[in-house]
Amino acid sequence: MSLGVGTGWSGPSAVQRDRAVLALVVFVVLFAQVLLYPGITDLVAALGRAPSLDAGTWFLGAEFAAFVLFAGLWGYLSDRTGRRTAFIVAGALGGALGYLSLAALGRGGDVPFVLLLVVRFAQGAFTIGALSLAMTMLMDLEGGHGKNMGAAGIAIGSGTALGAPLGGQLYEQGALVPLWVAGAGLLVAALLATRVADRAPSGNGRAVGLRDVLARLRATPELGFPYAFGFMDRLTAGFFALVGTVYFRETFGLDAGGAGLVLGLFFAPFALLQYPLGVVSDRVGRTLPIVVGSVCYGAVVVAVALAPTLALAAAAMVVLGVCGALVSPATMALVTDIAADDERGVAMGGFNVFGNLGFLAGFVVGSVVAGAAGYTAAFLTAGALEAGIVLLTLPAFLRLDVLGSGQRT
């Protein structure tokens, strides 16, 4: 039976195809990033430093410092020129070169750690362009902001869900293997990006947003809500990427592969529920998912630390993933609800700036508190910050008009 004209099936639309490809780009970027997390102490040891929280903090922090500094710049350049695809390809290629350079330098041995941090910073400066602008291109698509951000969310969740356990297994083959795989993954992302039609609004010729996300916040203070929530969500993610990984390995005697599997227990439900819960936020508004999800998320972070056995800690990680999936697509969709059409690149860049500041804070706060007062205190701090930000901003948040119906798409 032919599936040609007259059968009632015409295949996916151009928008559907581009949504899928852009989600794949986001997936590959996050997959490459998270490959490194489960054995981060093994990696810094292979690169010439003693395996410790401090060395891991510097290595992970260098990338996210670049994310903070360059996310807004990529968005600004995209909005000014009215182009996105070319910048995504350039960002993915530059990120691939950074990962592969780190692997080559580490293989050579006896390279100053500060030089490796410089390369890591450059890799992050390019990678954030691919990630942030792929997400911005999803914002440009028709079909509902919750649906489009749900696609971004499921790509993020799937990339991290597969990256954590696979990264742990790759570390068993060699400490530098995840770097080689990450570089190859970003080369694939660059190839995928060339297949997407560029729907960016025409360059408007105005200097919008280069004078920083703070200028954008002064003009549109409502963006402060998703930026603050994104900051705290990423803080807990950064906390688990470093402190959580070391905690599971030290407390329960896990190797890198085992730690990756435990992290995967969070990311699997986080990935699978992103899309449907993004659609739900289109129907019920953003308030309920963000408020309920954030408070529950903070409570479960604490529960992970209080779990006396690995089985209970693993179960708490699954619940944590469900709570994260409730919050993430609604928060990203809120950025889209608020931002003007021709300033989406800067708005999403600002969201990533605050999110990556959150990652940095998660590394630093978690490392400092764990070193000074122990892991339980560190988990308590992370959980209190996650739930506390929503409770403190709740009265003003409830007055935000765009949340009333969830229909502004």
From TrEMBL:
Q: What are the TM regions of this chain, as residue ranges?
A: 20-38, 58-77, 86-105, 111-138, 150-171, 177-197, 225-248, 254-275, 287-307, 313-335, 347-369, 375-398
Question: Gene Ontology cellular component?
Answer: plasma membrane
Supply the name of the protein: MFS family permease
Keyword Nucleus, does the record have it?
Answer: no
Question: Record's InterPro entries?
Answer: MFS, MFS_dom, MFS_trans_sf
Q: Which residues form the Major facilitator superfamily (MFS) profile domain?
A: 222-409
- List the molecular function annotations (GO) for this entry: transmembrane transporter activity
User: Which keywords appear in this protein's UniProt record, sorted alphabetically?
Assistant: Membrane, Transmembrane, Transmembrane helix
Q: Which organism is it from?
A: Halarchaeum rubridurum
